Structures are given as structure tokens and as C-alpha cells.
Amino acid sequence: MTGHRRRRILSLLAWVGGIVLLAAGGARGATTSVPVLSATGVVDSVLAGYLADGIARAQSSGAPAVVIRINTPGGSLDATRTIVSAELESTIPTIVWVAPAGGRAASAGTFITLAASLAYMAPGTNIGAASPVDSSGNDIPGTLGEKVRNDAIANIRSIAETRGRNVDWAVSTVQDARSSAASEAVSVHAVDGIAGSLDEVAAAANGKTLTLAGRHVTVDLAGASFDEAPMNPLQALLHLLSDPNIAFVLFLIGSYGLIFELAHPNFVTGILGAIALILAFIGFGSLPLNLAGLLLVGLAILLFVLELTVTSHGLLTVGGIICLVLGASALYTEPGSPTGPDVSVALPLLLVTTLTTAGFMALVVWAAVQARREMPSPGTVQPGLPIGAGGVVRRPLEPRGSVYAAGEEWSALSVDGATVARGTPVTIVGADGLTVVVAPASSATSAAADAVDMEGSVSPDGPTLPYEQPVGRAGSSARISRTP
Q1: Would the CA dihedral through 11, 16, 19, 20 be positive or negative?
Q2: Taking the complete model, does pTM exceed 0.85, yes or no?
Q3: Domain covering 27-235, topology
Q4: In the structure, what pLDDT confidence band is assigned to residue 9 with cuts at 50, 70 and 90?
Q5: How far is Cα of residue 105 from the mean position of the Cα atoms in its chain?
């Protein structure tokens, strides 16, 4: 019994030991996976939270390093400081890779790249241009300008010194707006090398010894795999709003939706338009918005609305198109901080929106002109309502009231000034402006015949005024009058 109990205990220990070894093996396998975080577009609070959380998760999972693939025009100073702090405090290597070819690490991207444990650039990329300017793109004058410039210089100097990078070059990106291509950045020791792919990044970084959080760490990426760690859907949506083109399109869609709601109330377009405008202004909050440009775009939309109600023969539309182009071109200013993005509405998008709006407004103007041409002249009835058309009295004719004819309700006048009760069948025998002249169906034929070729018209008081009414085919008419 004692031997049996001993065997059971040994078997249990072996089973537990196997579980522990498997867990340890799984943990070691997990450390060979390197998360790749994507920092593209404008640097905003959403991107800062995503990168800071990604670095923290990589540390807690025991990853050998974390890669930040960056391509940005710049962004918020507060968001930049959050990202830089996460990089400097990381206990695992943070590797920034400026990619793809043609990408850039401008403004805020310069600070983020210099703060990395290791920094590499793809061929054809550039880095720098971090000078502080005001919202108009000019140097900030006076004491304020000196304070902003000195703070930015001190910040980037501290980062460069901490990471052992070229301090003079780093300061020149703020002081002189210096920007360097990948090869120059490597030659001046601003970054650690050129890498055209993640595999080249791993090969270049592997084996390097770094000082992280006061201890020496050797980068071990031998056999490591790279796993993309994208934003969650909500983060991706909110970050997408900071795209200057997306924000511009949302503003136009929202404005047009509200205009359509005012013209044809239906709640749907109004609600969708309001949501689009809110999302647009969320995006504008992360961008160097130019109020003058926004007002020009708003004026363009106002002119388009007036075109629908004012006879301008297209002049308001032309003015609106000009304001739209000028406003969109000036919608964003130069960055207002050393990390601010240098953005604008893309020229292809500007051309597409301008041509689309111009085509739509041209159609509206053409339809309005056609409608005005088809409006009846005084003394005629609307097209599609000829003499002889039947109807029914809706509001008693005393002698004025209304009749229902041809699917619509019309102001009406009895031909002889007599009272006609509601529900009485009538026949149209003429018109007085936009008022139809009717007679009870039983006497309509004789009333029309007596009126032909006679001068005068119908009025409730008896005086005669001439009026004309199309008869039969389009273009033929008869002058109808009636004297009580």
C-alpha cells in the first residue's frame, strides 16, 4: 500500500512537471513574436493611446522587442509627449521603422523616431522639419515665439542625448526646420541604419546592446516572427477622422444633408448630416484648421442654397464654385507647433468634389430655368389642364372656392358668379391667371360656346376681363369671356 501510494505521488509530480514544462515552452515560444504597431496619419490622442498600450502589452507578454512602423506628417504635441514617454520608459527595445518608401517622419514623427531604442528608415524616406510656427505658417514673434522654440529645442535635445543620437542635428530640425533623407540621416547618426523590410530591420537590430531602464539589454531577434497588431475598429474609425481629406468630405456631406433636410424634411438626411458634421469637427480638432478657409466653404454652400430660390441664371453657382475651391485650398494652415502636421486637401479630391458639385448645380439651374419657362402666362391654365377637363367642387364656389381636377386642388371661380355647392361636378371652361373658371357639368358646353370670340372676362362683381385658355392640342387657344 505504501509503495502504491508512492507511485501515485510520483505519477502526480510527473504530470504536474509536464504541465509546467509545456507552459514554460509555450511562454518561450511567445517571446519570439514581435508585435508591429502602425503609426500612420496624423499623430492624435487615439494614436498615442494605441501605441502606449501596444508597448505596455509587449512588455507584459515578454516580447523581445516592439516595432513601430511610422509614416506621419506630424500631429498633437500632447500626443507626441505621451508616445515619447512610453518609448523612453519601456523595458524592452522599441524599434521605430520609417516606412514605406516615400514615407516620412516629419514634425512629431521626428520626436518619436529619435526617442526609439533603435531607429531605421526605408530607402526613399525622410525625417525632420520640426520648427515651431504660428497658425498662419509664419515664425512666432516675440517672447512667445522664443518660449515655444526654446521648449521644443530643449525637448528634442534631451531625447537625442538620452538615446545617444546627434544632438546638433536634432536641434537643427527645430531651429532651422532641417529635413534629411534616409542616407543623410544615417551619415549624421540621427538614425541607426537603412532597412527596406522587417527582416532587414531584425537583422540590423539583432545582437545590439542597449541600456533600458538602467540595465543592459541585448536585442535577440534570431528566429523571431513579426505579428501585426492593428488598432481595434473603434480606434481605427476615430483615427481615420483625423485624415484631412476625410474631414473635408464629411463636412461637405453633412452640409448637403442639412440643406436637403431643409428643402425636403424627412429626418433621415438631417440626422445623417448632423452626424457627418460632428465627425468632421472631431477630425478638425486634430488638424491645423484655417477658419478663413472653413468660412469660404460655408459661403459656397450658402450660395448654392440661394441658387435654388433666387433667379441668378447660374451666377450664384459660379460664385459658390470659386468659394469652394479657394476655401478647400486654404482649409488647413501650416503646423502651429513643432510637432504639428503639414497637411492639405488632396488635389485629386478637390477636383472631383468641385466637378461633381458644379455638375449637380448645373443640373439644378437647368431644371429651374425649364420650370420657369413652362410656368403659365397670365390668362392660361397650367399645362395638362385643358378646357373640357372635369373636376369636383371641394370648397363651395361663392363665387370663388376650389375644385379638385387632374389630381390637384385648384383655386376656382364660377363662370356666372353663381354659388356652386361642394361635391358638384364641374367642367373647366377658362382661366383667370392661376384661377380656373368652371361651370356645372350640365351647362359647361353652352357656357364655353357662348364665350368664344367675345371680349371680356368673368369676375364676381360682373365686370368683364379677357382671358385665354389652351384648347385641344398644344399651341391652339380660344379667347373666352362671359358677361353676366
Answers
A1: negative
A2: no
A3: 2-enoyl-CoA Hydratase; Chain A, domain 1 (3.90.226)
A4: low
A5: 24
